C-alpha cells in the first residue's frame, strides 16, 4: 500500500474539503508525528470537524486513531531506508551548513535586535518555542521584548509597533495563512521585520524586509522529528553573537 491508497477512502469519493486535507497530509506526511488536529485543519484551510469526518471516511473512529495508524504506516514505510545513523549524519550536515547562512542578514538582524526599542517575536506550532527563546534571551540582555505563539495575541501588537521596533516571525514552512490577516498592518510600521524559515519559496516574503532562510529544507520536510531544535540552535547562535558584540563595545 502506498500513501495515496492509505489516505483515500475505499468506497467513498473525496469531497473538495477532503481533497484539501488529503493534499495537506501528502505534502508533509512526516509531520504527522507531532501534528495536532488544529494544525492539520489550519494547513488544509478547513475546520476541525471536517478533519474528523475525513478520518471517519477512512474507517477510523476519529483523528487520534487515524494519527496512530498513520504513524505506524509511515514508520513501516521508512524502516527499510531510514536508521538512526542516517538521521544523525543528516542532522549534523544541516548544522554544519549553518555557517553558509547569509552573514549580511545575520549582522542586520543582530544590530536591529540590539538597537530596537522593543522586539516582538512570534511563531506558532513548531515555531513557538524559538520565538519565546529569543524574547527571553533579549530580556537577559536588558532589552524589552515580547513573544506570542498565536495570531490572536500577536494581533494586539498592531497599535503598539513603531518604526523603532523589530518584528521577528519564525515559520518552519513559510506558509502560515493567518499572517496576512493578523500581522500585515504591524509589519508595515517598521523596516526591522524578519522572517526566519526553511522555505526559500515562501509566499510570505513580500511582507518582510528581511528573509533569513535556514539550511536543511529537504531534511526538515522529510524528517519525522520535530524541526524546532534546529531553529533553537539558530537562535542560540544569534544571541551568542549579540552577547559578544555587546561585551566588546
Automatic annotation (TrEMBL):
Gene3D superfamilies: Glucose-6-phosphate isomerase like protein, domain 1, Winged helix-like DNA-binding domain superfamily/Winged helix DNA-binding domain. One of its GO terms (molecular function) is DNA-binding transcription factor activity. SUPFAM superfamilies: Homeodomain-like, SIS domain. It comes from Lactobacillus acetotolerans. This is MurR/RpiR family transcriptional regulator. Residues 109-248 form the SIS domain. GO terms for biological process: carbohydrate derivative metabolic process. Residues 1-77 form the HTH rpiR-type domain.
Amino acid at each position: 500500500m502506498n500513501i495515496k491508497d492509505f489516505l483515500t477512502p475505499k468506497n467513498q469519493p473525496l469531497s473538495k474539503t477532503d481533497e484539501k486535507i488529503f493534499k495537506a497530509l501528502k505534502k508533509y506526511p512526516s509531520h504527522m508525528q507531532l501534528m495536532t488536529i488544529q494544525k492539520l485543519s489550519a494547513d488544509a484551510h478547513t475546520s476541525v470537524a471536517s478533519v474528523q469526518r475525513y478520518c471517519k471516511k477512512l474507517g477510523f473512529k476519529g483523528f487520534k486513531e487515524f494519527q496512530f495508524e498513520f504513524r505506524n504506516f509511515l514508520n513501516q514505510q521508512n524502516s527499510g531506508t531510514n536508521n538512526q545513523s542516517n538521521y544523525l549524519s543528516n542532522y549534523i550536515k544541516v548544522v554544519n551548513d549553518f555557517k553558509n547562512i547569509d552573514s549580511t542578514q545575520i549582522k542586520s538582524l543582530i544590530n536591529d535586535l540590539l538597537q530596537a526599542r522593543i522586539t516582538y517575536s512570534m511563531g506558532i506550532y513548531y515555531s513557538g518555542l524559538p520565538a519565546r527563546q529569543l524574547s527571553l534571551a533579549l530580556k537577559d540582555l536588558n532589552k524589552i521584548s515580547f513573544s506570542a505563539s498565536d495570531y490572536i495575541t500577536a494581533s494586539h501588537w498592531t497599535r503598539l509597533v513603531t518604526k523603532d521596533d523589530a518584528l521577528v516571525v519564525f515559520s518552519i514552512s513559510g506558509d502560515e495563512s493567518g499572517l496576512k490577516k493578523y500581522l500585515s498592518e504591524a509589519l508595515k510600521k517598521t523596516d526591522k521585520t524578519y522572517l526566519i524559515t526553511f522555505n526559500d519559496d515562501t509566499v510570505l516574503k513580500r511582507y518582510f524586509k528581511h528573509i533569513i532562510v535556514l539550511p536543511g529544507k529537504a531534511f526538515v520536510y522529510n524528517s519525522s522529528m520535530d524541526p524546532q531544535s534546529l531553529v533553537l540552535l539558530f537562535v542560540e547562535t544569534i544571541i551568542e553573537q549579540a552577547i559578544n558584540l555587546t561585551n566588546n563595545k
